[in-house]
Design brief:
The chain is α/β, with parallel strands linked by helices. The protein is 52% helix and 13% strand. The chain is globular. Bound molecules: NADP nicotinamide-adenine-dinucleotide phosphate and zinc ion.
Amino acid sequence: MFVNFNMPTKLVFGGGCIRKNPHLFLSLGKRALIVTGRRSAKENGSLDDVTQALDGCAIQYELFDKVESNPSIGTVRAAAAAARRSKADFIVGIGGGSPMDAAKAAALLARQNLNDDSLFSGPYTKDILPSVMVPTTAGTGSEVTQYSILTNDNAKSKTSISTALIFPKIAFVDARYTENLALRTTINTAVDALCHCVEGMLSVKANPITDLLAADGIKKISGAFAPMLNGNINYETREELIYASTLGGMVIAQTGTAAVHSMGYSLTYFRHIEHGRANGLLLASFLSFVGEKDPEAVKRIFSLMGLKGTGELKCLMEKLLGQKEIISDSEFDKFSGIAVKAGNVANSTVVPSREDLKKMYAESFR
Ligand code: NAP
Ligand code: ZN
């Protein structure tokens, strides 16, 4: 057995975890840049908790609150410039995956001069601002990953920065911030976390520890689908979801994602379909594809989800995600040409060809 497991982020989980542990900011410096989206962090209590903790530690801070969903390179450069201007010693990212990813990229760009190509490819020096992440959606797990995924107009897709340098130093994970998440965002982000766990289990880099985490994540997220469909999501369910999404992040930090994510990026880039929704629409056909060659692995995943097979999963996703977008054959052709070049497409135990990807797209939107 061979296991390689790297999780350098300190995880602090639970209701009120920032207020209970403000001292953890002390070791990071005297000045912070807080990176958020435009609204939600101000409304869900997360920004207040962070600023109160920083005030209590006599740490000065500035706010960069301009991160859009699927952040652009321009936005992260603006955040990095704000960090330099304010002489920040560290960065706090608060929000869904978009502000957290922007914060990680800004931490890198604040210290390193990287053009639009080398931002994704390196080489990097070790010089980077430390970062703290506070997730407010239960989906991406970005608070515990070494990835920052940005909209890359040069590649006409979403592209990942992937370097252990951008692992956050601390992740504060508190389900209270997700209590008022809209049902649509709750579903999309939960489905994203489910895909992280499923793709992680089918990865060539999976190991016994990632399998344990992924299996627990799949069970917890699947258990939350009924309350979502009833529109009756209580705090315990919110906590299970954000816990599972952090587990999913720990999984993909080791295994990477696979073809579902590579295919999903074009749906987001060209058709503006939310990240988790894009993945959810593709998941059943990916499992059906892998199941032809590796039926035992896929059976195990369905059993963790409490489902009989692809038909039931398709049905569930249709109920959760609603009416599908109409996508043309020529779009499938173009998208599969882009997806086949993505690094993560070859990550699964069964590797799809461009033709397989096109078939999966078509099956998913039939
Ligand atoms: P998001 O784009 O961060 O946020 C979606 C929407 O939800 C925004 O309008 C945001 O509003 C709102 N929102 C966030 N928290 C909220 C709350 N507590 N209450 C109410 N509204 C809230 O969505 P996401 O799905 O979390 O992140 C997607 C991004 O993460 C994509 O770019 C994806 O590629 C990336 N991702 C990264 C990783 C990784 O490992 N780095 C893994 C998977 C996905 P505001 O704008 O006002 O905040
Ligand atoms: Zn994802």
